[in-house]
């Protein structure tokens, strides 16, 4: 398989995520678009790790001696991105659900941040 295919798919996914963030009004759909962007980054991280390893495998000498402990570093970075995405979804959904309980809407355009609009009880 050509290495450009995952890069193009990752770029397309990231572009769809950016479109979703900029054009959607529903906060839950914006969170889904952000997740799509993070998954595109994961795909590109893993693809870059695999393609660079296969490209640098033929370099002779001590300039590129990779110990086994650093093997798969793209996958490790992708794992960190997955953990951050899970935390983002947890906090984001908690904020959106609390806002929905108070206002009965999740449209981003209607969110007001000033203190005088506070609802008591």
UniProtKB/TrEMBL annotation:
Membrane-related topology note: Multi-pass membrane protein
Top-level taxon: Bacteria
E.C. number: 7.1.1.-
Record-annotated membrane-spanning stretches: 6-22, 29-48, 76-97
Gene3D superfamilies: 1.10.287.3510
Localization of this protein: Cell membrane; Membrane
Subunit structure: NDH-1 is composed of 14 different subunits. Subunits NuoA, H, J, K, L, M, N constitute the membrane sector of the complex.
HAMAP family in the cross-refs: NDH1_NuoK
Enzyme class, broadest EC rank: translocase
Reactions catalysed according to its record: a quinone + NADH + 5 H(+)(in) = a quinol + NAD(+) + 4 H(+)(out)
Family listed: Belongs to the complex I subunit 4L family.
Protein name: NADH-quinone oxidoreductase subunit K
Job description of the protein: NDH-1 shuttles electrons from NADH, via FMN and iron-sulfur (Fe-S) centers, to quinones in the respiratory chain. The immediate electron acceptor for the enzyme in this species is believed to be a menaquinone. Couples the redox reaction to proton translocation (for every two electrons transferred, four hydrogen ions are translocated across the cytoplasmic membrane), and thus conserves the redox energy in a proton gradient.
PANTHER family linked: NADH-UBIQUINONE OXIDOREDUCTASE CHAIN 4L, NADH-UBIQUINONE OXIDOREDUCTASE SUBUNIT ND4L
UniProt KW Oxidoreductase keyword: yes
Keywords: Cell membrane, Membrane, NAD, Oxidoreductase, Quinone, Translocase, Transmembrane, Transmembrane helix, Transport
Disulfide bond in keyword set: no
GO MF entry, a single one: NADH dehydrogenase (quinone) (non-electrogenic) activity
Organism annotation: Actinoplanes oblitus
Pfam families (UniProt xref): Oxidored_q2
């Amino acid at each position: 398989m050509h290495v450009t295919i995952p890069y193009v798919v990752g770029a397309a996914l990231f572009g769809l995520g950016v479109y979703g963030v900029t054009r959607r009004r529903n906060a839950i759909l914006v969170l889904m678009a952000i997740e799509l962007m993070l998954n595109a980054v994961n795909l590109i991280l893993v693809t870059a790790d695999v393609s660079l390893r296969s490209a640098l495998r033929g370099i002779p000498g001590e300039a590129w001696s990779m110990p086994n402990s650093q093997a798969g570093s793209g996958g490790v970075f992708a794992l960190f991105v997955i953990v951050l995405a899970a935390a983002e979804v947890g906090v984001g959904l908690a904020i959106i659900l609390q806002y929905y309980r108070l206002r009965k809407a999740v449209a981003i355009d209607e969110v007001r941040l000033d203190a005088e609009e506070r609802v008591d009880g």
